[in-house]
Amino acid sequence: MNPNLLLLLYVVPMVIGLLFMTSIGASMGRSLSSRYEWMNIERRRHMFGLNLVLLVGFAISVHTAWIGNKISEGASVCASASLFSCDDVIGNPLYNTDPFFGIPWGMLGMITFAGLLFLSNSVSREPDALWAEQHVNFGFYITSAGLAVIALLISYEIEMEKICQYCTTAHAANIVALFGFWKVRKMHEAGTWNDDLTESVASN
Amino acid sequence: MKQDTEADVRTDTAIKIGALFFIALIVLAFTTDPIATGTREGDRAPPLEGMMYNGSGWSAFDLNDYLTPSWVDNDSSAPWVVVEFMDTDCPYCVRAAEEMGQFSNYFMKYQGEDGTPPSSTNPPAWRGPLVNFIASATQLDIKGHDTSRDEIEGFRDKTGGESCASTSCSERPGTIHQFPYIDDIDQENMDAWRVGGTPEYFILQPDGIVAWVASQHDETLSDALFRLTEELVE
């Protein structure tokens, strides 16, 4: 299967997740509310979108780790003479591991997104818990720190004059998740966190 | 009965996410067989790039151009690779130059002292797979070591007025080398290959896997090549 076509399997759900976190998500939620009642509630809709984006980030990190392993075996997964060639980026041993522990970036992505999924999922399931705000803050800080990692990886790509489209999608997932955690904090502050309140606002 | 339900949610979520992570690891473990990149035997050789001198001029070099990623064990048609890390001012490298010339001419299937290519009337003596020799010329951080591209050319071709380890490069032992020399004066390749001193030799399988590292054995380069390619000799 064409690796760029395969990428759509990640991009499409990520965009859907992003839309659920924006005002467009409200109209999407309304049209789906007859089947899924919880879609009327902004917080639930938002957390669904955030969980979806983080799941995509985790899945694409697994795929990136898999590509890295395959390339080390000598296989060619997504090599291309064009600018977009993930084989050249993931397969470059000078840049394909983190500079401190030597962990492949794909594996690091798996660990990070799994951690974020735990934070986001636990908040979704117990939004009024005392630790919920703390989890949201952790998520916000981790995804913010991810920006520095993304900048480092982009600098590698500039140096190699190649772009890894799979890595870029994982970067995008981190940025969308950062937006998601930021918005959750805002919702907390604005008092739109409570189910009943949100429902009554929605019905007005 | 009092219960800490908040803790339950976190534990339950952690178990579920942990299970998801574990499944991902299982998938990776069962569908891939990764090979580490490095310079230990069995590792995939790191990149080797730079500008090379082949006797006629300087051009871009990439080790990948010499490799056959799809190589299988019994395929004798794919060339093997010998990588030598050397310094033109290293006396041990100068001394080894004669043997390197002999080995390279033999395993690269050249004929005679001058490196004449083989022909139908003058077939190569070596009946095993072709072995490409490559030298990566660095400049060690030792007082008196001062390499340049002119010196690399002089070392390879035995020409010019450059000095190699305190003697004229044109007077180094052995014949002119037929294999390319890479400019690694900045030690970039040497660092990537974790070479501690020169000369150091690596034998790479056609697929780029490190098959032999000189510093880990007592046998000579030629003996190692004979041993490793024993089953591929026609």
Please describe what this structure looks like:
The complex is a heterodimer of chains A (204) and B (234). Chain A is mainly α. Chain A is built from eight helices and no strands. The N and C termini of chain A lie far apart (49 Å). By secondary structure, chain B is an alpha+beta fold. Chain B has two domains: 1-34; 49-232, Glutaredoxin, CATH 3.40.30. Helices cover 28% and strands 18% of the residues of chain B. Chain B is globular and about 85 Å long. At the A-B interface, helix 3 and helix 5 of A face helix 1 of B.
List its traits.
heterodimer; A: 204 residues; mainly alpha; 8 helices; 73% helix; disordered C terminus; B: 234 residues; alpha+beta; Glutaredoxin; 2 domains; seven-stranded mixed sheet; two-stranded antiparallel ribbon; 5 helices; globular
Outline of the structure:
Chain A has 204 residues and is an all-alpha fold. Helix content of chain A is 73%, strand content 0%. Chain A is built from eight helices and no strands.
